Amino acid sequence: MARSGPPLRLFQNWQAKLAATPMILTALVVFIGCSLWTVVYSFTNSRLLPRLEFVGLAQYERLWSTPRWQVSIENLAVYGVLSLILTLAIGFLLAVLLDQKIRFEDGFRTIILFPYALSFIVTGVVWQWILNPDFGLQHIVRGMGFSGFTFDPLNDPNLVILALLAAGIWQGAGLTTVILLAGLRGIDEDVWKAARVDGIPTWKTYIFIVLPMMKPVFATCVVLISAGIIKLYDLVVALTRGGPGIASEVPAKYVYDYMFGNQNLGQGFAASTMMLAAVLAIIIPFALFQLGRKRRV
Questions:
Q1: Can you spell out the DSSP letters for the chain?
Q2: Which domain holds residue 280?
Q3: Terminal CA-CA length for the chain
Q4: Which of 123, 129, 174, 258 is the most exposed place for a label (fewest CB within 10 A)?
């Protein structure tokens, strides 16, 4: 039987393609169109309203010379590296524990995943209570007789980023655990049997055999975690409001404040473009990685 040529393939599954057309148009117009619009206006002197008064790289030069933006980038780098490493490590350890087919596994999975069901605003408020020196951890420990104990990270510029980190990991580790657990359950049982027959210790099996087999699962987790790190905003507003001072500022808050608070659209667009570049730096390698896997298969 002769194969159908390209014109005929174009009309295969036309119902599905027709149904996907609105989504494709939305992606092209709303996401790609608005992103390009933002990039173009980042080179203008727009203030309260957008205007095509080009100033070259002036907005970017001002952006990278602003101490507040520099602090926000440093905070995001520290938060991002620690959050990525700790979330993956904690998520994998919890996934390994759950993979032992323990009793009440469904209940533990629900408890672990529950924080992810909360919004960052709720998470920020909860951790604000936990870290409040008047009725939080400091108050509880002092009530146990340690009257000299001091723990007030929300008002300490050197510790406030760690408070954000604890709250972020508390919320995000559950999703990572569930994804990695699904990856572990996808490992063929014959792999474990062969490892046991060869006398390979369990920890070596996980590190040298299971982890390499789970590269695609870890790649997915890295993309999800990284995207959440770059757009970090709600948690900061709810927990620290960027304080004390500018000690916990992040790029997303900088964008919002300049666009809607300071009414400086050009500066906000420039900061948004830098965030977009960071997102593309994550998504493009992931897409190439997935494309390479499909070609190898």
A1: -PPP-HHHHHTTTHHHHHHHHHHHHHIIIIIIIHHHHHHHHTTB--SSS----B-TTHHHHHHHT-HHHHHHHHHHHHHHHHHHHHHHHHHHHHHHHHTT--TTHHHHHHHHHHHHHS-HHHHHHHHHHHH-TTTSHHHHHHHTT-TT----GGG-TTTHHHHHHHHHHHHHHHHHHHHHHHHHHTS-HHHHHHHHHTT--HHHHIIIIIHHHTHHHHHHHHHHHHHHHHT--HHHHHHTTT-STTTT--HHHHHHIIIIIS--HHHHHHHHHHHHHHHHHHHHHHHHHHHHHHHH-
A2: 66-296
A3: 26
A4: 129
Task: Tell me if 6 is assigned to some domain.
Answer: no
Phi, psi of 246 (to 5 degrees): -120, 25
Is residue 244 reached through a cis peptide bond, with omega within 30 degrees of 0 on the bond before it?
A: yes
- Examine residue 193 and state whether it is found in any structural domain, yes or no: yes
- Domain-located, residue 24: no
pLDDT, tens digit, 9 for 90 and up, residues 211-266: 889 988 998 898 889 888 888 898 999 999 888 889 999 999 999 998 888 888 99
Q: Give the separation between CA 280 and CA 214, rounded to whole angstroms.
A: 24
Give the type of residue at 33.
G
Number of domains making up the chain: 1
> Tokens in use for 130?
């936990």
Checking if the pLDDT of 82 tops 90, the result is: yes
CA distance 110 to 102: 14
Q: Residue 182 domain-assigned?
A: yes
CATH of the domain at 171: 1.10.3720.10
In this prediction, residue 12 has a pLDDT band, given cuts at 50, 70 and 90, of low
